[in-house]
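If you are new to this repository, start here. Below is one unmodified record pulled from the training split, so you can see the exact layout before writing a loader.
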Amino acid sequence: MGRPHILFVLVDQMRPNALQWAKTPHLDALAARGVRFEQCYCASPLCQPSRNCIVTGRYPTQHGVCGNMNEPITMQERGDTYPQHLQRIGYHTALVGKHHYFDRWAVGIDVLQDDEAIRGYGYDHVWQVVDDHLRNQDRYTRYLQEISKLQSFQDMTRRHAYDPRALDPSEFDDGYIGETAIQYVEAYDADAPLYLQVGFLGPHPPYWAPGEYATMYDPEEMAPPRAVSAPRLIERAKRARAQYLGRVSLIDHYVGCLCAALETKGMLENTLVLFTSDHGDLIGDYGIFDKRHFYEQSVRVPLIVAGPEIELNVRLGGRICRELVSGVDLYPTFLHAGGSENRLGIGARDGLSLLDIANDRGPRRQTVYSELGTMMMVRNANWKLVYDAEQGGVQYLFNLRRDPEELDNLAGVAGYERVEKQLVELLLARLIRLTHHTQQKERERLQRVRV
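And here is the target side for that same chain:
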């Protein structure tokens, strides 16, 4: 069948249990013919750094994007992204929707002027939609202008008074992204294998859904937030969760439509489909409405991989994988799927191919890491530790086997000093490895030097 096509669906702020809460028949069908990774962690629980981790295969410590509104990665780093490598081995690469490799929130520009810069990350085709339609212009604001709904949409957004009847689901931002991606698949006629990245804006706030998706879930039936007793906060979280799940189901609908379009074109059988999120969302858990934390529902993400026979005629088939995996593993996975001889690009990376892991080949992770600003997280089979030197050291220590809801913080508790010490040493050794550079000649000359 030759090299597979690749469909990468990247959503924004989807917590890992969203696919258990929501009605997602199309994603369930995708998982039934693939692998659901239950222990996938983003490399940073915030949009811009996480997405740069995915596209570069490196952590914020390495690529330098440590928060939103950061400077973008260097031109040299852009030449070593996985889309660049896919281009070089013959793929046609396309991006439809959100990228957030650099930040344009509320800057008041027409983001189409950035198209050339985004192509520099390795995309032949760019169709940008950003998540601020009040101050910026993009492909979606042009569409709303064409259907005479831009002014009413912006008025509604300005007032934070969202009316589910204002837009049909196909006119909603995620609907527009999904419809555009479907049209791209339907029109694709090149001989080259296709890499298509579809970046949905949802289920990122604001928490509202269009049409029938706004009433698909009853707030009273939503799970209450963890570690919260205030009635008003519980009610707020339940309302938000009902709208959030409506958006999850809308995205699920378009995942199904995309797969159907690929099947109609005769491409689905030879397409690797990968679905994941940049980070999760607490939606009221612990009293927090945000990501930017290392609690499980913020730092862990859903991940589904399904596709054709890649190597050794072993099919990824309807399995749940509980191995620890990371957002930085997507880089070698895409290059592995594309047949690249070099899965790790030019520079140092420690990602692993998900195809190897799913097919029980190669090494496994004993630990997984995530970073945000001055904070770092390490998680192994049983324990999670969060460390922040600026805040005095260890902030959280959870035994996830005994305390999966992370209600009992053992940081500084007598009797757990040895566990803390071991995990902090792992973090520090990793940080030294990521930031310590030397030429091989000098490494050999100074081999007796110890840190």
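Two things worth knowing about this chain: The longest helix spans residues 231-264. Residues 52 and 222 are 33 Å apart (CA to CA).
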